Amino acid sequence: xxxxALFSLLYFAVSVLTLTDSSLSSITTAASPAAxxxxxxxxxxxxxxxxxxxxxxxxxxxxxxxxxxxLNGTYRPPPINCxxxxxxxxxxRWAQTMRLAVEEINQNPVLLPxxxxxxxxxxxxxxxxxxKRAVLSMLNGVSEExxxxxxxxxxxxxxxxxxxxxxSIVVSRILQTFRIPMISYASSCACLSDxxxxxxxxxxxxxxxxxxxxxxxxxxxxxxxxxxLLRGDHDYGRFAAKGLLRELQDTKVCVAYQExxxxxxxxxxxxxxxxxxxxSTAKVVVVFLGDLLMTPFMRDYxxxxxxxxxxxxxxxxxxxxxxxxxEYYPYMGGTIGFGIRKGHIPTLGDFLQTVNPKRYPDNxxxxxxxxxxYGCSPLPSSVTxxxxxxxxxxxxxxxxxxxxxxxxxxxxxxxxxxxxxAHSLHKLLLCQPGRGPFQNNSCAQSNNIHPWQLQxxxxxxxxxxxxxxxxxxxxxxxxxxxxxINWQRGKEGNIEFVNVGLFNxxxxxxxxxxxxxxxxMWAGHQSEVPVSVCSASCLPGSRKAVRRGEPICCFDCVPxxxxxxxxxxxxxxxxxxxxxxxxxxxRTACISKKVEYLxxxxxxxxxxVMSVVGACFTLAVCGVFFCYRHTxxxxxxxxxLSFFILFALTLCFLCCxxxxxxxxxxxxxLRHTAFSITFSxxxxxxxxxxxxxxxxxxxxxxxxxxxxxxxxxxxxxIISSCTLVQVVICAAWLIDSPPFPSRNTQYEHSKIIxxxxxGSSLAFWCVLGYIGLQACLCFVLAFLARKLPGNFNxxxxxxFSMLIFCAVWxxxxxxxxxxxxxxxxxVESFAILTSSFGLLFCLFAPKSYIILLKPEKNTKQHLMxxxxx
Length: 869
Description:
Blueprint: H1 3-18, E1 25-29, E2 36-40, E3 48-50, E4 54-60, E5 66-67, E6 81-82, H2 89-106, E7 117-123, H3 128-140, E8 156-160, H4 165-177, E9 182-184, E10 201-203, H5 208-221, E11 226-232, H6 235-247, E12 254-261, H7 267-279, E13 284-288, H8 291-303, E14 310-313, H9 315-318, H10 329-332, E15 336-340, H11 348-353, H12 364-374, H13 400-403, H14 409-429, H15 451-460, E16 462-465, E17 468-471, E18 481-489, E19 495-504, E20 513-515, E21 542-546, E22 555-559, E23 564-565, E24 575-576, E25 581-583, E26 590-592, E27 594-596, H16 602-627, H17 632-635, H18 639-655, H19 665-698, H20 712-736, E28 740-744, E29 751-757, H21 761-784, H22 794-818, H23 823-853, H24 860-864
Parallel strand pairs: 4-7, 4-8, 8-9, 9-10, 11-12, 11-13, 13-14, 14-15, 27-29
Antiparallel strand pairs: 1-2, 3-7, 5-6, 15-18, 16-17, 18-19, 19-20, 21-22, 23-24, 25-26, 28-29
Organism: Solea senegalensis (Senegalese sole)
Keywords: Cell membrane, G-protein coupled receptor, Glycoprotein, Membrane, Receptor, Signal, Transducer, Transmembrane, Transmembrane helix
Subcellular location: Cell membrane
């Protein structure tokens, strides 16, 4: 239960005991229990009364200022009075609309034939306390003679009212005790939909649950993600703000601040709220206030010269004529909000023209209306200080607060409420005995209808009025329709309320809002939608990163990581590109990864040239040796082994070409196997030559005949055997786990590197290890023979060639492991070429030099070191 409701009930209890400030009926029990009499200790007369067969009540805040005194309990409280100089012409029109509707119904031969409706209309002064007084006076009756509260059913069948939700809460709690239904025309608080707390409450205005849903959709539709919230310190403001926050939970809209304007407004409090508004980056402010609280706030607001705020008004404020003056336009122009759907009442304008002091000379409210509209009084000058007038002045268009019948939203609600009661009562009276809805299928007695019986029919009422269908749901709420209202500058500089859209709660979710943005004039007289965000939108290629400790609407824009993209504004996360794709430079799209392998580009061409040049050099040396095959230097170095070595070196140079180009299944298998077998053949030949050299010089010693074991046939056997071991290893490798082309996406994620996977790492390193073993054995044997006699000791050159060979391949191992991508193939190719050139030049350059440039040394005597000095 709210504090206001508790206070009202407490006040009601005190009033019952004191019987001072309201027209309560006191039950004074005499000595005999049978003797009881209802006595009115104070009278609170209605402002308009018409008798009828069935009477309904009306509560309107005709005055919007209340004279409250300090009730400190030291004296008898005086009556609570409304401020006579604060009559609201707009609300007075509402009261006249109720009178008009009753007159139309009484003259209608179809609706409630032979029956008449009466009414009692009271002024609530826009305050719960006087609202309570009004409803209690309404229940008591005008006098003791007419009051039947002590003995019979209530003379009031239903009540039209009240305006504010706080007033309706108080009034409804009193009426539910007597089971009297009430229909509110302006109370929209969602709290009133609770049938457990307010079982007799109905309304023809949509619940704030729909209003906050509409406001939330508007904020989302206009991309206002950072808004302020200003509400009144009452149930309407509390429940509306709570409902809006609930609706915004699943959206991208955040509330920057929530400020409360107290019921007892002070300038100090207002300035503090304005300071918050000025310092905030939120340029849109949602308002859940009525003009009663907004007016003093706006007076201080205008003195601070704060502009640029886009107001979003609830239905309690959006149609307020109090704030429609031209002085408000620079500060509130462009306001947009949801107003109660308009309706047309054809006879209203003419009826309002008939209300004047001449026709109602005794009605105080009509006199006050004239004072408010014309600034004169039809009463004698001795009674008032205002200048006199006839009371027959014509009501003109400038009296829009009273005469505005073009958009009577609340007025139309009052009209619908009266007709809802009339249709319910009509259906009740048509009930046929034995087919009724009450106990034993009974009907209500037409001469003694109880309000709770009328409520049953009111719950089920359904009728057409104009082009609108009127009915109530199980909670007493009506169909939710709102007009979207925009505050625009009129011809005379004042504010005009322009309809720019519609919210239809009966539509499917997401289709309720219909708005014409091209017709809207925004704050600051701008035609473009204002921007209200905590952080600027993140462009495609970046994502939102929420700041720690701040709302989700406040974020930083973080560029997407490599390999991820975002192609939408304000992406929450970046999407990872598929395996064969990579992000472009702007991180907005996935593009195919660049495919890399050792191609015939600059590096590939260089290796190709080196390979071809090496093969050509080898063939050239082979040609020289072939031409000079009968000379001593060729014959003494075993020409057959020399040609084998040159053949193997040619293949070594040419096998580098297998490493260049797009890897295929066959090229991958040929790369390593061809390289390993040709090098093994080459090293086997060099090993045979080393053994021959070592054996040749050893055979010159007495008792040694080792050369017979190293003849040409044996040399071929050694070469074939050593090469065959490598062939067997390669064959096992190809059978078990052969090399194959693979796509390496791990080393550099932005590229696809096509390479040859070795398949079996063990086999690969066995191949290299076997070649290394051959080279080491060759190196050891050549090293042992380096000091043998002779001017041309080939063992020295074999030693140097093996030394270079081993150095190259020892350096190859770490370079191969650490080389990125296609450079792995380049490193292996370079190692093959380098070691091949080392073998070619170390083994054959000295011989070619002698053959071509020093032919005089190409003799057996010189080579054996036996030439004469």
